[in-house]
Amino acid sequence: MASTADIRNGLCIKYNHDIYKIIEFLHVKPGKGPAFVRTKLKSLTNGKVLDNTFSAGHKIDVVRVETQTFQYLYAEGTEYHFMNTETYEQITLNKDILDAPDLLKEGTLVMVQINTETDLPLSVDMPASIVLEVTYAEPGVKGNTATNATKPAKVETGASVNVPLFINEGDKIKIDTATGSYMERVKE
């Protein structure tokens, strides 16, 4: 058992007969009344996100997790196949458990959190950013550059990303996996 003082991003807890991962948290100490912790929890079974407030000192049931490196192999419908880089064991995960499945490129290394009690995968942590090639982009129109003009572009995984007007087909761009937004053009 842990208390609200142990809450941090990425912590997995048992709550309401389900396993949740803490996405965001904020310790609040109001001038009047007791302190509390405002959290945003993501269910690891169905992917739903809920807001919850724990009073200070509230006991929480922590789930022991182990993190292992897996390599993304391929997708088959809504099933995504991964291989453990140490044991070469393969696992299949549903699309719902992934944060940004449309940004996954074959060969990408991800961190999979596994429940040590049941040996079941709980969540997949993508790398902070990923480099993908632009496969389709409208040509930029001259004169449309008043303030941070963007256009939609398709990348090699099929995802659509808003990019600046100077990005063309064949360019490699770095994408933030947390927000799915353009970060910079990569020159190789």
From TrEMBL:
PANTHER family: ELONGATION FACTOR P, ELONGATION FACTOR P (EF-P) FAMILY PROTEIN. This is Elongation factor P. It holds the Pfam family Elong-fact-P_C. It is found in: Cytoplasm. Pathway: Protein biosynthesis; polypeptide chain elongation. SUPFAM superfamilies: Nucleic acid-binding proteins, Translation proteins SH3-like domain. The gene is efp. Residues 67-122 form the Translation elongation factor P/YeiP central domain.
